[in-house]
Amino acid sequence: MAITAASVKEPPKALGKKMLVWAIAAVVVLVNLYADACMYLNGDIVYPLLDIIIVGIGVYVFTSKKMYAQRYAFPSVATMIAFIIFPLVYTVYISFTNYSGEHIMTVDDAMKYHLNAVYRSEGGDYQFKMVSAENGRYRLVLTQDGKSFVTAPLALETGAIDPDAKPVQVALKPAIESDTAAQAVSMKELVAHRRALQKLELVIPDSSIRLGMSGLRQFSAESPKFSVIAKGAKTPEGLEVNVERSLYDNEEHKLFVPNMETGYYQYANDQGLPEGKTYAPGFRANIGFMNYTKFFANKSVRLPFLQIFIWTVVFAGFTVFITLAIGMVLACLVQWQFLAGRGLYRVLLILPYAVPSFISILVFKGLFNQNFGEINMFLEMIMGPIYSLFGATWTAPEWFTNPWLARGMILIVNAWLGYPYMMILCMGLLKSIPDDLYEATALEGASPLQNLRYITLPLLLKPLAPLLIASFAFNFNNFVLIQLLTKGGPDIIESNVPAGYTDLLVSFTYRIAFEGNKGNDYGLAAAIATLIFILVGFLSLLQLRLIRQNADQRV
Description:
CATH superfamily of the largest domain: MetI-like
Structural class: alpha+beta
CATH class of the largest domain: Mainly Alpha
Number of helices: 18
C-alpha cells in the first residue's frame, strides 16, 4: 500500500503545539484589532494602519514554517520600524504641513464648526422666563408684543453639556393666562441650566422661524449662517465655485472658501479665490517646503538656529574632550601602584556615576543660585576681601542670566556627570596595556609624558573611538541637562521663535513645538528636527570616515 502525504497524520503533540500557536495568534490579532478600532473611532488612521501591517507580518512570520529563521530577527525589526523608522517618516511628513496649535483640526472639522454658526434673522427677540413644572421639570414662557408661547415641561440638565451635541428642537404652543402669570425661577437656578437652554431650538407654531437663546432673558430668531455649496455650482450672485468644501454666507451673501495654503477659511474675491482676513479655527494642510523656506528665508529663525547649532557641536565636542581628559588622568592616578588607598579613591570617584543624573543637576542648580547658592557665597568669601584691598566691590557671577557664564556652568556640571564613565573605561583599557612596553621605555629613559603620548594614548584612543562617538551623539541631544538646569535661558532677544543661548538643537526644537507664543508650531519643529537628523547623520559619517583613515594610517 502506497503511503501518501495526505495519509500521514501529525502526532498529537505537534498538533497541540500548532493549535496553541494559532490560538495565541488569534488572541493577539483580536486584541490589536480592538485597539485599532478604538484608535480609528478617535480619528487616528496612521497608527492603526501601522499596527495592522506589523501584526499581520508578525502572524505570518510566526505561523509559517518557511519563515522560521526570521522569527528571531522579527521582534527587533518590528521595534525598529515602530519606534525609529515610522517616527522619522512621520516627522518628515509633518514638516511639509502647517500642523500647529492653531491648525489641529482637519478641513472637514473646520467646515462643520462653521456650519454650526447662526445669526439673528427676521422674527425678532422674545423675552422669556423659566417657571417650575411638575416632577422637577420646567416650562419656558416666551413673550413678544402681546403674543405669548409656552413649551411642554422640559427635563433640563445641569453641569457640562457636550458642545458637539445637536440642538434639541422643542415645539411652542400658545400660552394661557396661568402660564404668563406663573412665578419665574431665581436667576441662580436659571444660570445653573444655562448650558441646557443654549442647546434648545424653539419652533414657533405655523412658522419656519427657529429661536435660540441669545441672553439670560431672551430668545432670538436664528438661522444658519453658512450653507454648503458644491464645487462647480454658482452663488445667487452668479459667482462660480472653484474650491471643494466651500460655504455660502447667508447673512453676508458672500462665498466662504478654505485656503489650503494658510489653513484658514476666508471670503472669496471676484475670481472665487480666498483673500483677506482669515477666520479661526485653522485646519491642517500640506504646504510643501514652506516650513523649510521659512527657516532659511527668515533671519530671526535662521540665525538662532546657526548659533545654537555651533554651540551644540562645541558643547558636545568639548564635553567629550574634557570628560576623557579628566577620566584618563584619574584612571592613571587610581592605578598608580605607589598610591595608598587606591580602592577607596576608586569608590569615591565613581560615586557621581551612581547618583541619578537629574538629582545631581538639581543639586548643582541650587549650588549655582545667583543669590543664595553656596558657590557664589564661597566666591564672595574669597574674592570680596581681595577686591576690597584695591577699593573695588566684588560682584557675584550671574550664572543664569549671563550667556557665557551659563554655558560655562553647563560644561562644569556635564563634566562632573560624565567623567566617571570615561574613568571606568580608561581603567579597564589601561589594564590591557602590557607592562613590558613601559619597562622597555624606562630602560630607554623615556619620561611619563613620552609614555603617555607614544604608548598610552594610541593604545587607548583606538578602542575608545566608537565610545567617544556614542558620547558625542548622546551629548549632542542632552535634553535633560538643559531642561533641568537652564531651560535654554537666557533667551535670545533677537529671535522671533523660542531660543536661548544655552539651548541645544533638541531643546530648541522642543521649545518651538511646545512653547511658541503664537501656538505650538509642530510643522516648523518637524522641519528643524529633519535638518538635525541630516546634520547628525553627516557628522557621524564624517567621524567614522576620519576614524577609519586614522586606523589605516596606523596600519
